[in-house]
Each structure stands twice: as structure tokens, then as C-alpha cells.
């Protein structure tokens, strides 16, 4: 199965659009014309995501105007609607046949082809959310994808233009049926490809009317239906999401005949949950949800000495994970509108979810922020921490302002076993900076492309401290290029750290070492460091192209040092674990080196921990060539043998004694 399937199916599980359907189930195989007979006069097939009475607002923005993208047609196979037609790279054609569970063709089903946008990680999943709504028929506005829809003909067939050399989804949508879809990819220019049958199964529906305590409809409430059993991605949508229209109604279609959890939320009202909500073939498919007004979250902000803090900006945000709605509601659970404390230091939020926990932030200007985590209540107190203010100016060796220099402060916590991070600020156009800190002992440093400067001992920073002009020591540049064991240039390098290894290391603050990063980001062709103080440096890094040595080089002021780094040849071991009876085995194991590491590789690991799964080969890479003992990684674990590895790949079958 192509790797693209999982993110597509996950996105198809993120939400569902809204369609209108008759309220009675037909008997026998269903055609779209029969299913829509009662609402044929009112329902526009080009806007299948809308109720006949009032169109539902799009979860992702204003409804898309389809009038200029191709007229809706009743003739089978003609273009029904095209969204952003100029973006459809249609150089191929796909054909599908829509059938019911009995294999009979379905006339008049909405069939669409949709180009899948480029995906990478979570950002890619988010970019596909509007694709889901398009497949479901909900009106959306999005410029990152193109979609074309037609109606199936008398034989259930539909032919559509499809993009070439990219991935796309073909789907069939029919009132009161589950969505059916297939993935296509890699079509050549001018190719005509038959994707076969799209089989649609009957689906259930549910009308949800959302009202307030007085029975008045609530518009734009978010409604989510979640399958109790998690659902099967290949057959159904585990999660469906929509919003209520002006009449307070949300209509779900494409539901499975199973039990769901229902959640309803609207800013300013209480959150509603109910389960199970059973979807049956003969059920009436209607329910009313009453939302009560939300609760108040109010209190006082005081300073470090217990006095009321006026003019402090306070924000409140429901914690992620409080609702299944999170991520689906287009900012519903985002931060409430900020409030500013009055002369008595008081703040107040109305209409909050009573069953949610909120992250509160009180942000004075100037000063350090304070944080709290509370459920809606009265009388909450937020205490601001005491703040130390350190200010100054960074200048270069010629006395000119160093614009956008990074100034970092690292607190000295002595023997306390807690991890601290540097607090960094940037200089303005005049080279000036202002840092807001927790009072205490600090070491500081400043870095710029023209040099660096740092403290030689810790300073006690309390109240307002003026550091004056911090003059940069003239710096140099280092450019590193990396070559694999075969002598080929490689960019498969990850930076770890860069520090002085000459006399300067004795006075360098940790904040400076942490701030030394490649000035050209992740580029490794070459990897560049600007503004390094003159001295000798050692850089540690990792690489999947070979063994990574410690790169050592000298830097001189106002000069560029070019360094070529040669990676070592590593060993890669592929292990197959089995029991004495020949059956696959798994577990935790460890490779321990026999004897000392070669001097040039003493900074690398001399052991490798392994987690093996039954029936799968386990690959261990980045091994320094030599002899190793393989043993079970547990107390009293057995030794499984000694192995010698040279550069390159090795395969071994390991038998674990019973």
C-alpha cells in the first residue's frame, strides 16, 4: 500500500462535510435520482454540502463560489463543478464505475477527482484538512488544491480529467451512503486509466438541533461525531465534524450504522457530551441538544509584593486534549480575547467551558509573565514574579552598533539539580537590548557575525542593572565541507556542538557555547560559522553517511578558515533473531565492543542497544569496525556470540536458546 494512504485516511478521519437527505430509507438498490427525488427542485448538486434552507458556514472560511468554475450539469458524465480550474493540471484521464453493494450501477452519483497537495509531517496533514471537506461536499475556499466533479451516467461510469505525475484521490459521494474513494498516482501525460469500481454502501444520518436554555437556535456551534470503536479507515470515517446553520441545525450524513460519541461546543456556552448515540437504519435520526451559558473565570493579578497590578494583559486558553474538537474547530478552543486588569488588578472572562482547564498567562509590560492553570471560578489570584532588568548596548571593534546581535543570560543555580535554559534577546537598530530576568547570578554572552564577547565570571543581577557597552572581539569565519568514506561530498550531517579547546575554554560561559550555531542554518554545503573569537575549536556532529570524527580547526580574526572533514567507514549489521525451534524471536539485546576504541573514535559509543521485533530483520548502523559481543539486554541475560565487523554491511542469524 502506498505510504500516502495513511495520512490521507487520517485526514479523511478528521472531519466530515454536510449533505441533505430524505428522512426515509428506500427499499432495494438506490440511485442518486431516486434518493434525491423529494428535494430535486431545491438541491443544487454543485453545492452538495449545503442544506436546502440555509447553507452551512464552511469550517475553513467563506463558502467557495462555484459559479465561475463550471456550471452544474444534469447529464451523466458532464462536468458538475470545477474548483480553481486553472490549477487543474489535467493531462490524463481516469474512469471509474459507481456501484452499490449488489454490484448494480448507480446513476447520478457525484464523482470527483482531487489533486493531493504535497505533504510533509503534521503540516501536510493540516494542509489536507480542506481536501476532506471538498470530498464530503462541503463548500470550502482553498488555493492549494484543485477539484473537478461530474455525475455518473446510466451505467454508473464517470470519466474525469486527472493530473499527471502526481497523487490524486477519486471519490464517489451519494446521499445516505458512505463515501467511497481510491488513490491514484503516477499517470503519464495523455494516459487513460480505469480505476475500476467504487462501491458505495448505505449510510445513516443524524439531524442535530442545538438550542440555548430558552429554546433559541445557536448558530455556528461545532458538532463532532466519533465512532465508539475507532472505525475502519478503509470503510468509514471515524470522526465527522460540522457546524450548525442559522437555524441551529447540523445534519450528518455518511454515518455508519454503529454507536457514536456526540460532542457539541460553542464559545460562550457549556460543552456537551453524550454517548452512545446509536445510528440505525430505521431510526428517526433527530435529536436536540441544549447548551447552557458558559461559566466565569475571574480573579486578581498582584505583583511580587502583593500589590494590585494594573494594566496587565491576561489571556486564557483551554488546554489541548480537553475535547475531541481540538484541531477541528478552526480556533474554537483558541485563546479567549485578552483582557486587561483594572486599577484593582482584576480580570474577568465570561462564557468559558465549565468542564475545561485553562492555561492563564498574565503578561506585564515590562516584566516577567506569570502562569496559572485553573478551571472557571471566581477569586483566582495570579502572582507576578520579581523581575531583574539588564540593559546595555553591543558594539563592534570600531564602536559601531551591532544590529540584531544575540545576547544570552544563563542563570548559575550552583549545586541545584535543575536544568536551566539561557534567556536570549536581540539588539535593536541602535545595538541596544533589554533583558527581563529572574533575579540571581548570571553569566552572559553576546554573538554577532562580526565577533563575540562574554562575561568571565557570574554577575548578581537584581533590580535594574546597566551593563553599558559590550564590545565584540573581532571574529573570524569557519567553513566546513564533509566527505564520505568514498570521498564524495555529503550533506547528511547534523550539528551537535562547537566549543573552544584552547585556553579560552576555561572562561567561556555555557551560554556562549549554546549560542554557537551554524550561521547558514541547516545548510552543510558548506556549514558556516561567523563571528568566532580567535582560537582552536572542536566541533561534534553526527552523520548517517559514515563515522563522524571530532572536527578540529583554528580560527583567526577577520579570516576564513576552510576545513574538509573526512567521515570514517562504518559497519552496518542486519540481524535475524530466531528461537531454537526455528520460530521468529524478538526482544532487547546489546552489542558491547571487545577491547578499547581506536583513539580517533573514543567520542563515539562502544555499545549499541537493540530492540528486535519478531519476524523482522533488525538493522544496526554506525558501528565502529571491530569485535563485539551480542548479549540479551537484561540482568542475567545470555551471551549470544562474538562477532567481528569490518566496514560495510553484514548479515547474521542469531539463535536464542530456550
Overview of this structure, please?
This protein has 658 residues and is mainly β. The chain has five domains: 5-15 and 61-199, Sandwich (Immunoglobulin-like); 295-324 and 331-383, Immunoglobulin-like (Sandwich), CATH 2.60.40.1120; 388-462, Immunoglobulin-like (Sandwich); 476-566, Carboxypeptidase-like, regulatory domain (Immunoglobulin-like, Sandwich); 571-656, Carboxypeptidase-like, regulatory domain (Immunoglobulin-like, Sandwich), CATH 2.60.40.1120. The chain has five helices and 44 strands. Strands 24, 25, 27, 28, 29 and 31 form a six-stranded antiparallel β-sheet that branches. A five-stranded antiparallel β-sheet has the order 1-4-3-6-7, covered by helices on one side. Strands 11-10-13-14 form a four-stranded antiparallel β-sheet, with no helix packed on it. The longest helix is centred in the first third of the chain and has 8 residues, at 5-12. It is extended. The chain starts with a helix and ends with a strand. Residues 1-89, 119-130, 139-144 and 324-331 have low confidence and may be disordered.
Amino acid at each position: 500500500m502506498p505510504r500516502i494512504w495513511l495520512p490521507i485516511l487520517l485526514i479523511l478521519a478528521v472531519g466530515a462535510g454536510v449533505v441533505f437527505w430524505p428522512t426515509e430509507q428506500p427499499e432495494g438498490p438506490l440511485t442518486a435520482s431516486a434518493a434525491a427525488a423529494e428535494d430535486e427542485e431545491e438541491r443544487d448538486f454543485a453545492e452538495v454540502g449545503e442544506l436546502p434552507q440555509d447553507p452551512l458556514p464552511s469550517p475553513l472560511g467563506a463558502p467557495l463560489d462555484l459559479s465561475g468554475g463550471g456550471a452544474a450539469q444534469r447529464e451523466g458524465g458532464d462536468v458538475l463543478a470545477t474548483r480553481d480550474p486553472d490549477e487543474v493540471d489535467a493531462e490524463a484521464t481516469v474512469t471509474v464505475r459507481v456501484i452499490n453493494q449488489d454490484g448494480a450501477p448507480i446513476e447520478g452519483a457525484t464523482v470527483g477527482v482531487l489533486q493531493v497537495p504535497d505533504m510533509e509531517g503534521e503540516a501536510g496533514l493540516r494542509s489536507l484538512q480542506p481536501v476532506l471537506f471538498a470530498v464530503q461536499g462541503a463548500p470550502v475556499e482553498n488555493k492549494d488544491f484543485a477539484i473537478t466533479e461530474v455525475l455518473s451516467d446510466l451505467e454508473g461510469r464517470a470519466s474525469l480529467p486527472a493530473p499527471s505525475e502526481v497523487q490524486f484521490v477519486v471519490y464517489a459521494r451519494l446521499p445516505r451512503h458512505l463515501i467511497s474513494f481510491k488513490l491514484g498516482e503516477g499517470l503519464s501525460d495523455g494516459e487513460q486509466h480505469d480505476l475500476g469500481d467504487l462501491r458505495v454502501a448505505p449510510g445513516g444520518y443524524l439531524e442535530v438541533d442545538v438550542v440555548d436554555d430558552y429554546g433559541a437556535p445557536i448558530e455556528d456551534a461545532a458538532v463532532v461525531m466519533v465512532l465508539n470503536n475507532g472505525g475502519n479507515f478503509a470503510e468509514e470515517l471515524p470522526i465527522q465534524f460540522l457546524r450548525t446553520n442559522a437555524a441551529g441545525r447540523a445534519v450528518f450524513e455518511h454515518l455508519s450504522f454503529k454507536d457514536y460519541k456526540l460532542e457539541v461546543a460553542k464559545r460562550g456556552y457549556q460543552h456537551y457530551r453524550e454517548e452512545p448515540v446509536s445510528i440505525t437504519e430505521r431510526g428517526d435520526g433527530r435529536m436536540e441538544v441544549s447548551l447552557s451559558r458558559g461559566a466565569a473565570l475571574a480573579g486578581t493579578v498582584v505583583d511580587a509584593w502583593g500589590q494590585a497590578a494594573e494594566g496587565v494583559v491576561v489571556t486564557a486558553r483551554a488546554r489541548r486534549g480537553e475535547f475531541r474538537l481540538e484541531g477541528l474547530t478552526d480556533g474554537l478552543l483558541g485563546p479567549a480575547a485578552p483582557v486587561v486588569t483594572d486599577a484593582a488588578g482584576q480580570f474577568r472572562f465570561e462564557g468559558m467551558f465549565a468542564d475545561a482547564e485553562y492555561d492563564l498567562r498574565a503578561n506585564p509590560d515590562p516584566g516577567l509573565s506569570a502562569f496559572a492553570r485553573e478551571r472557571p471560578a471566581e477569586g483566582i489570584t495570579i502572582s507576578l514574579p520579581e523581575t531583574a532588568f539588564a540593559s546595555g548596548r553591543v558594539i563592534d571593534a570600531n564602536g559601531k552598533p551591532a544590529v540584531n546581535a544575540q545576547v544570552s543570560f544563563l542563570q548559575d543555580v550552583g549545586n541545584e539539580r535543575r536544568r536551566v535554559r539561557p534567556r536570549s534577546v536581540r539588539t535593536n537598530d541602535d545595538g541596544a537590548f533589554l533583558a527581563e530576568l529572574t533575579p540571581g547570578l548570571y553569566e552572559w554572552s553576546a554573538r554577532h557575525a562580526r565577533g563575540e564577547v562574554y562575561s568571565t565570571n557570574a554577575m548578581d543581577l537584581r533590580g535594574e542593572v546597566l551593563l553599558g557597552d559590550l564590545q565584540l572581539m573581532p571574529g573570524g569565519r569557519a567553513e566546513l565541507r564533509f566527505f564520505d568514506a568514498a570521498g564524495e561530498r555529503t550533506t547528511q550531517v547534523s550539528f551537535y556542538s562547537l566549543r573552544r579547546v584552547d585556553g579560552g575554554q576555561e572562561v567561556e560561559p555555557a551560554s556562549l557555547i549554546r549560542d554557537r550555531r551554524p550561521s547558514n542554518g541547516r545548510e552543510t554545503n558548506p556549514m558556516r560559522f561567523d563571528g568566532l573569537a580567535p582560537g582552536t575549536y572542536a566541533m561534534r556532529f553526527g552523520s548517517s553517511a559514515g563515522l563522524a570524527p571530532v572536527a578540529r580547526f583554528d580560527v583567526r580574526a577577520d579570516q576564513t578558515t576552510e576545513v574538509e572533514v573526512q567521515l570514517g567507514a562504518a559497519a552496518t549489521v542486519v540481524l535475524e533473531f530466531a528461537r531454537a525451534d526455528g520460530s521468529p524471536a524478538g526482544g532487547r539485546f546489546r552489542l558491547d565492543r571487545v577491547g578499547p576504541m581506536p583513539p580517533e573514535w573514543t567520542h563515539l559509543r562502544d555499545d549499541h542497544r537493540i530492540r528486535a521485533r519478531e519476524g523482522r530483520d533488525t538493522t544496526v548502523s554506525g558501528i565502529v569496525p571491530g569485535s563485539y559481543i551480542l548479549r540479551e539486554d537484561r540482568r542475567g541475560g545470555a551471551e549470544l556470540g562474538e562477532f567481528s565487523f569490518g566496514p560495510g554491511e553484514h548479515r547474521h542469524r542469531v539463535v536464542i536458546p530456550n
